[in-house]
């Protein structure tokens, strides 16, 4: 694939100001200027993250009402059910809340839906499980913002629902007891980039503040939340950077048996823990629990106090991840074959592929791989025997996938997600119409130039500038991630 090389433009006055104030070489000053680190106060906040500098959780809409009600249930010793999504973000958020509630003596249980049989989001089966165990409240994690019908059902059988989520809302919000989501239209929380596990952490932090419990009771789970931050590819700035910075240190200290077992299975013990290593070596194993089996095992892994059980679960997930990789490879090859056989491919700006009985658990990974190979918005859909399809969507820079699906909503039975990644469900009878309409939307929205990926270079770099001070600076910039990506440098006249 050809790339457009683009050297980032950086205000020269900012670079000179940093050089003067910090006595730094131009290469380092350029990277700092690009991230807005132009004075000592900003520098201290960036290079020395501190959990005490996180935002007040009560700034989030719905937090006060939620915490008051949860406090009532805790005092009355009522049962609470945590309902988490089956991906890394959902299971880490659920594990975080479960460990916290257990630590303060709450009768708490968790439920993770079956990816294949129940699909994404709050499910009727999960609500019925809450009824059977006598739960007064369901707290969702990383899902629920679009669960209008499900919340109505829960209300009808006398179970309240508190939604904690971070996905975009639809026009109609569920009639939940309360909703905690920084991306609600009416929420003025100062940081919108939290993942689902991050929102869960804010909730238990708020409970500690409200009930006079030591804040460390909540904040000691930053290691688990960091896995959710890494896997969900959320911006590595603001609170996410603070949480991840603290969480990585806790991961390296080995305080969680489950995470330590995952690191061991990935042969990362003793190595420096980075967000990249968590994304590529640890997160896929947690996801494997839900892709090919019971995602509840991921929560059990992260909440067990038994290192032998953690080792056994991690080994099982390692085997399932290898099996998942084989299924993924076969599906990717099927997709590439379909693309090669499509005579219109060069003229179409989006890739939409579908097949009967592709494994639902891998279509998201496949969509990512196809998108990376061709740099076009990609939708991969698997249909079952009854003609019901579920698909995963991945986008490119400058194209809002979620908004585009919204324009096709009359042809879908459901959709949700983010501008860059989303999911949908569709009936086979609507496939042809959806294909045509979506291609038209993409054609009107994306220029040919946008289909050529851009390789953004942060700065020019002379080889002689690479020294111990420079390498130490690069390390201090971590944790890296969206919004704080690992810098790319360009050196010329190199043999």
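Q: What amino acid sequence fits the structure above?
A:
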């Amino acid at each position: 694939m050809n790339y457009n090389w683009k050297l980032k433009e950086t205000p020269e006055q900012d670079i000179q100001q940093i050089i003067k104030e910090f006595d730094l070489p131009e290469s380092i000053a350029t990277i700092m200027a690009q991230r807005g680190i132009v004075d000592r106060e900003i520098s201290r906040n960036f290079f020395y993250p501190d959990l005490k500098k996180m935002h007040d959780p009560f700034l989030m809409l719905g937090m006060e009402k939620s915490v008051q009600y949860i406090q009532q249930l805790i005092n009355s010793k009522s049962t609470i059910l945590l309902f988490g999504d089956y991906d890394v973000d959902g299971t880490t958020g659920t594990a975080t809340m479960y460990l916290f509630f257990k630590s303060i003596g709450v009768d708490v249980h968790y439920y993770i839906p079956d990816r294949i049989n129940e699909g994404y989001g709050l499910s009727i089966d999960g609500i019925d499980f809450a009824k059977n165990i006598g739960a007064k409240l369901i707290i969702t994690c990383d899902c629920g913002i679009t669960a209008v019908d499900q919340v109505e059902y829960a209300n009808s059988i006398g179970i309240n629902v508190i939604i904690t989520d971070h996905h975009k809302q639809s026009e109609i919000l569920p009639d939940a007891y309360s909703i905690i989501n920084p991306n609600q239209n009416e929420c003025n929380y100062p940081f919108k980039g939290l993942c689902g596990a991050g929102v869960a952490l804010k909730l238990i932090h708020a409970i500690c503040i409200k009930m006079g419990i030591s804040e460390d009771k909540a904040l000691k789970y930053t290691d688990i939340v960091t896995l959710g931050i890494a896997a969900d590819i959320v911006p590595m700035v603001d609170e996410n950077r603070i949480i991840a910075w603290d969480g990585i240190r806790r991961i390296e200290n080995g305080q969680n048996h489950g995470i330590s077992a995952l690191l061991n299975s990935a042969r990362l013990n003793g190595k420096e823990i980075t967000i990249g290593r968590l994304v590529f070596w640890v997160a896929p194993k947690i996801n494997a629990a839900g892709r090919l089996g019971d995602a509840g095992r991921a929560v059990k892994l992260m909440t067990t106090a038994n290192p032998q059980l953690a080792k056994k679960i991690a080994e099982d997930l390692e085997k399932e991840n290898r099996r998942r990789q084989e299924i993924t490879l076969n599906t990717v090859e099927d997709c590439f074959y379909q693309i090669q056989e499509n005579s219109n491919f060069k003229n179409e700006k989006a890739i939409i592929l579908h097949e009967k009985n592709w494994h639902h658990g891998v279509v998201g990974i496949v969509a990512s791989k196809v998108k990376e190979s061709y740099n076009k918005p990609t939708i991969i859909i698997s249909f079952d025997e009854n003609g019901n399809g579920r698909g995963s969507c991945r986008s490119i820079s400058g194209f809002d996938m979620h908004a585009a699906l919204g324009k096709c909503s009359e042809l879908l039975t459901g959709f949700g997600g983010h501008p860059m990644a989303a999911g949908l469900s569709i009936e086979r009878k609507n496939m042809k119409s959806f294909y045509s309409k979506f291609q038209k939307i993409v054609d009107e929205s994306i220029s040919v130039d946008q289909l050529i990926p851009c390789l953004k270079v942060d700065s020019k770099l002379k080889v002689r500038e690479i020294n111990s001070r420079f390498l130490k600076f690069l390390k201090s910039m971590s944790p890296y991630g969206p919004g704080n990506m690992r810098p790319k440098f360009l050196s010329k006249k190199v043999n």
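Q: And what stands out in the fold?
A: Residues 397 and 420 are 8 Å apart (CA to CA).
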